[in-house]
Amino acid sequence: MSGVVLKKLGAPEGLARRFLVTCMIVGFAALALAGIAAAWVTTRTAEHTRWVNHTYEVEVAIGQLQALVEQTEAARRGYVLTGIPAYLDNQRSIATKIDPALDRLTVLTEDNPRQRGRIAELRQRIVDIRNRQEATIDLVQAGKRADAVTSFTAETSARRLRTIRALFATMNADEHQLLVARDAAQQSSLNAFYLIVIAAGVLILLVATISVATVMRYTKDLGAARDRLQLLNTDLEGAVAERTADLTRANEEIQRFAYIVSHDLRSPLVNVMGFTAELDAARGTLAELVERATETAPDIVTEDARIAATEDLPEAIGFIRSSTQKMDRLINAILRLSREGRRTLTPERLDLAAMSQGIADSLRHIAEDRGAQIVVEQPMPTLVSDRVAVEQILSNLVENAVKYLSPDRAGRIIVRARTDGPRRVIEVTDNGRGIAANDHDRVFDLFRRSGTQDQQGEGIGLAHVRALAYRLGGTIDLQSTLGQGSTFRVTLPATLSDTGPST
Description:
Four Helix Bundle (Hemerythrin (Met), subunit A); elongated; kinase; phosphorelay sensor kinase activity
């Protein structure tokens, strides 16, 4: 609804979406505020309940203490007037409870300065009454009950009791005022909570209305877009099929071209290699001739001729032979890539652990000669893919790790595999020389190598690995630090679906 309104007002669709997001945030904030308010009110209610109970405890303690004082005075009066010992026993029993009751009331009112002052006065008043009670009791026990009655009649005990009763009444009134104030505070908290809940409810209802209206509008637009997409897909499938056929033909042409060019390059290369052998044989004959001429007629052999026959010509022939041998290896590598691209993949269930262990065993003697260890971490997940391609990938990566060990430390090569959703991740980690950061991408290019070139190779191994990984529907990436080691990570689908030739 908000988007429709904003669009009618000329607002862009992006603004409508931002407005909707803002409304959603406001709604969630309102909901959070209501939750916080509920927690706050709950805490306040618990606190209020605790203080109300405390007030009631204080009121009960005041009442109990007042009753004890009244009862001791009544028992004393009965003893003075009648002289019956039971009254005295009752007075003594009740009097022993006054001090504990007074102490408990003191503890309960520690948080109230006004009540503490009243309790101090009350304690003194109780001491005064207790002294007067003991004086009249002593008179009765001395056989002077008439004097005790006269003293009791003349004393101001009634006034003392009224003072104490007034203190008790004031303390009760103070607690009642506290209770009223706490009730008012609690009611204020409840009112605030109700206002917050009502406001949050209104905001949430507004956000829900806007969201439902927006979802309905976008659902309608989505249905129309789906219909249009279906129409486009009908045409797109045909275009994709046609384009795929064109790419397949183009790829096949490239492979045939590479195959033909490789064969065409091999013919002159064979001739060059043959003539190089003839030149080498002629060089030997010429060198013998120069040697005999030097012995029989040294005047006719110049130093330049001797050096040309014995040093320059052999060096040039050696350069020609090494270059033709390198060219022969490169042509063979191109032919292998071409044949691999035409090979039909055959998926089967592969035991990666057994395959990795077999590759490690085949290279173990080379690794041990170089002081390295190959570790295959188990268990490993199974993989449905082409056995030849996966073996070539693993072999190339492990063999490269063995070739490029660091001379500064004992080599350690680890092969591991794990499941990542619908894919399998194979990692080959080593602590070898490592690869510079600017060469991380270039090492996968054809005929490109990195670092010190002290190992034989044509720079085609990693390019072949990447081509195989792509053909199996996967990827390969590299993490490496120069001087510390490398990790090659191959990610393949758990089940290979495309078994046709490379397209």
